[in-house]
Design goal:
The protein is an alpha/beta fold. 36% of the residues lie in helices and 26% in strands.
Length: 246
């Protein structure tokens, strides 16, 4: 059976002034994939997914999501696509002045109009239950650990029931044990909700735990792709250097 392509990127280029970050990225993501993108700092990993959801305007290239070229959409049309995509930002990006409950309610109401108070509450609890933090519902972000912030941010992403989730450095700033817990959570969410994911990371443990495919960026291009084991045993010294600290 032919795999369904949810994301298709062709010849994507993006510069900031004279700094050419992406020089012609080609990438496909099939339904059900957990694609990990590795690369050194500044290689364009985060820029790629920000272009994908229209947070950055591309210089050149095509980005098809659900069969639609998002580079040609107006703001209203782009928002319809974004309703189907969850984005977990590197710092969690919770609203500091809002409780956990209000952070989730704000996102839910923004995406889904005309919900009853009871339905909002039910969906908030369900999202928090998925990340194991129901007890944190009335806490403020300042009361949460780094790992809890990531979990709440993930709950806020899940509450809109996305088909695609983009994870930008999901384990950054976390200790090894908490990082593994977040990686396990990414897998359990994929299994429960049948999501398709792109995971941007420099954490090789996270990559090993979550990826069914890996692509490595170098000099603004996809340098190599394969499974974790294939790339770990690559004949390319530069590629193998990513896996030295496993």
């Amino acid at each position: 059976m032919q795999e369904q392509v949810l994301i298709n990127i062709e010849n994507l280029s993006k510069s900031f002034g004279k700094n050419k970050v992406l020089r012609g990225i080609n990438l496909t993501v099939n339904k059900g994939d957990n694609l990990v993108i590795l690369g050194r700092s500044g290689s364009g990993k985060s820029v790629t997914i920000k272009c994908l959801v229209g947070l950055l305007k591309v210089d050149k290239g095509k980005i098809e999501v659900f069969g639609t070229d998002v580079t040609e959409l107006n703001y209203k049309e782009l928002n319809k696509i974004r309703l189907r995509i969850g984005f977990l930002f590197q710092n969690g990006a919770l609203y500091d002045s809002m409780s956990v409950r209000d952070n989730l309610a704000f996102t839910l109401k923004h995406h889904t109009k005309d919900l009853s108070k009871e339905e909002v509450e039910k969906q908030i609890y369900e999202a928090l239950e998925n990340v194991g933090l129901e007890d944190a519902i009335d806490k403020m972000p300042s009361e949460l650990s780094g790992g809890m912030v990531k979990r709440i941010a993930l709950a806020r992403t899940l509450i809109i029931k996305p088909e695609i989730i983009l994870y930008d450095e999901p384990t950054a700033g976390l200790d090894t044990i908490t990082g593994k817990e977040i990686s396990e959570l990414i897998l359990s969410i994929q299994e429960k909700y049948k999501t398709t994911s792109i995971v941007i990371t420099h954490d090789i443990i996270c990559a090993k735990m979550t990826a069914n495919r890996i692509r490595i960026l170098k000099d603004g291009l996809i340098h190599v792709e394969g499974s974790f084991e294939e790339l770990k045993n690559s004949s390319d010294d530069w590629v193998r250097s990513f896996f030295e600290y496993e």
